[in-house]
What does this fold into?
Amino acid sequence: MTDFTIVLRSLSLRRFSTTVTVTMVAVSVALLLVLLAMRDAGRAAFRRGTGNAHLLVSADTSPLVAVLNGMFYANAPSQPINWAAYMKIREAFPWSWTIPTQLGDSFRGSPVMATSKEFFTSFEPVLGQPWTFVAGKAFEAPYEAVVGAEAARMHGLKVGSELVLAHGMGTASGAAAHEHEDHPVEVVGILAPTGSAHDRAIFTSLETSWCVHAEESRLKEANAANPGEDDHGHLHVDPEDLRDSEKLITGILLRVPTRPGEQVSSALPVAFDLLRRQFPFTVAQPAQQVGRLFEIVSGVDTLFIAMAVAVMVAGALSVMLALYNSMDLRRRQVAILRVLGASQGRVFGLVLAESAIIGLLGSGLGIALAAVFGTVASAELQRRVGLVIDPSMDLRTIVLCTAAATFLACAAGIVPALRAYRTAVVQGLRPLG
It folds into this structure.
């Protein structure tokens, strides 16, 4: 009988204890792998989501809030920017392009962004990857909409579908402040997936949003001025009838000129400083703010990883306790092995081998659990946030976690192995009871 066979039989005789111990090791390994994989993939997904915009101008209170609201659709920006201010910013610098955006409406919980057609021709949702359509085309007239891939999947939308947008960011259940029932919007295009937060958004023209809100605003004014009249509901506003005060946006995406094939420009600091000095708005560099976001959460990141390591250490301690407590029941087995010629060193090695196998089994099961948990978490993040986070794990990380778990299990097996090493043959052969 080989030593390996002896170890396997010993583990099978303590099936329940072995299963519990292996499971504890597996959970700790899975937790650590998922945290490490999601941390790295999450950072990559957020950096990917800023696209090719160099700057974002907003009336939000801070650059980070501006980026989270304007590019990741966290909330509707709190304050608007008037069209005259946009035109001044547009003329203040020789930009490569400027794209106005307006957030504030939704469709069944999906954010609706009003913007210009340049959003689809100049802005890249992922750096180096322009927009592509799986069906239809970009909007060309008011009351037309383009739908992101995730929003189309979530709501079952296709070209020709009609949407009733709602004022306010709303919720997935459709609860929102007010629905624009008199102005259904027709879907004219479905975008291909990009792996960015834009996949869960719906896009329409600025004129659509301006006209809808102008009609509602003017209707309220008319009703307030003449509460007894009933024909105010037929009020209609065309784009050419819009007042300057009704042309409001919430953000401006900007890109400075660059050399062909390059993404960085020496003109960026100049443009940034010019906007900060001449305009009373928040100016953010999206890529820089995403880096700042991860600096803020790095402390929490470290805490979660420390907790995962603590769980792994707890799993190693459970290996030690399981093997140590089994020594009382295995005194006779150890004594018989010694009588059959097994040396103290061989007995010591058999116990260490048991702990190593528990560590390896736990690591293997932990890798499988991490793959399942990672896939589920990635799908949930894509559904809720729109970000595509790759759940795959780095081979180097897997090897290091497996080695760490096996090493800790072996280290935990030293104490029970020493106890087996010191077990006297005569004491082990005494009758039980």
